[in-house]
From TrEMBL:
GO terms classed as biological process: chlorophyll biosynthetic process; protoporphyrinogen IX biosynthetic process
Subunit structure: Homodimer.
Catalysed reactions, as listed in the record: coproporphyrinogen III + O2 + 2 H(+) = protoporphyrinogen IX + 2 CO2 + 2 H2O
GO molecular function: coproporphyrinogen oxidase activity
UniProt protein name: coproporphyrinogen oxidase
Pathway the protein acts in: Porphyrin-containing compound metabolism; protoporphyrin-IX biosynthesis; protoporphyrinogen-IX from coproporphyrinogen-III (O2 route): step 1/1
Stated family: Belongs to the aerobic coproporphyrinogen-III oxidase family.
Top-rank taxon: Eukaryota
One annotated Gene Ontology cellular component of this protein: chloroplast stroma
Localization annotation: Plastid, Chloroplast
Keyword terms, alphabetized: Chlorophyll biosynthesis, Chloroplast, Heme biosynthesis, Oxidoreductase, Plastid, Porphyrin biosynthesis, Transit peptide
Amino acid sequence: MQWCASIVSPSPSSSTFIPSFSSSHYANAILQTKLRWKPNQQAKLPHPHLFQFKVKAAISIEKETPESHRPDTFLKQSESIDAASSSSSSSSSSVRARFEKMIREAQDSVCAAIESADGGASFKEDVWSRPGGGGGISRVLQDGAVWEKAGVNVSVVYGVMPPDAYRAANPTSSSSSSDAAPLPVPVPVPFFAAGISSVLHPKNPFAPTLHFNYRYFETDTPKDAPGAPRRWWFGGGTDLTPAYIFEEDVKHFHSTQKRACDKFDPSFYPRFKKWCDDYFYIKHRGERRGLGGIFFDDLNDYDQEMLLSFATECANSVIPAYIPIIEKRKDLPFTDQHKAWQQLRRGRYVEFNLVYDRGTTFGLKTGGRIESILVSLPLTARWEYDHKPEEGSEEWKLLDACINPKEWI
């Protein structure tokens, strides 16, 4: 008989209270967690008072609570105190606290740069908390002078991941290893996830869309329980999605990413550039979503302090990589034809996010906060039947670069 777990939510004070998955950027990190067991091992079942087992799976998701003000930190009070007094800069509490500080500062600086470039519009802010632990800040600017839609979100959440979340995140994991199989009834796994996620859609078709996200993730499992061992990792990236190619802009963008990478390891840029090209691939179209950048995930094979500094450097590179391009292109005159092509490329953006993006699809499957999950989508997009740009045209050049990734620097 095949067992599936249905969570019975205990009281909010219980350590097994179930988290909600409110934003896609940390759901990406969850997807990297693998609960594995050897076929000849006997799985230990969770305590019967906490779980009931049914053939039909179900995921219990707690809802967010709107808050009227921003807290100084979303961390537990004891963790904040531990981080402030810790003598070890790489302690778990310290890394969590410093990563939260970094993403909140990055949110402030990126939003300020976006508002300045727009020249009038401002972000709407929603603050939320979750009973299981943590919360987030969502900021969205719509219908500005420059920006059609700009979203910059942060979240810091922790609690226990339900077994069904693993199954939803890893539907084909049984084929990824020849000597291991998914744990039939995995125990819930304590986790911590923090990240910043942003998508910026300008109105002018000559101004490119930008996406970036950076995140930190930890899991832990009691030593006598099957499942994921204690581990941590970083993930994220920054990528450019224009409708028209200005080679000097693309070179500037990639050069800025390379400089950030080269400060830490010269192998990072070529490695993460290829990873980005491979990840943002629309399989049913045979083309990439845009012109790439850098992307990495499940990164823990370097010193933790080094990777924290690397993620910080990458987040700080967003403004110098992107805003100069916006300033040059935001006021260029354009035609209805230019706008129609931009909308077709926005359609590709929607297709990738709804069909292939792991964070988006996971969030939709598990009933997360829909406004945060879909904030990456543009206000408008377009689909035309069997549209083919004329060979040699500017539109064709963009499509060719999406089909055949180039080395820009």
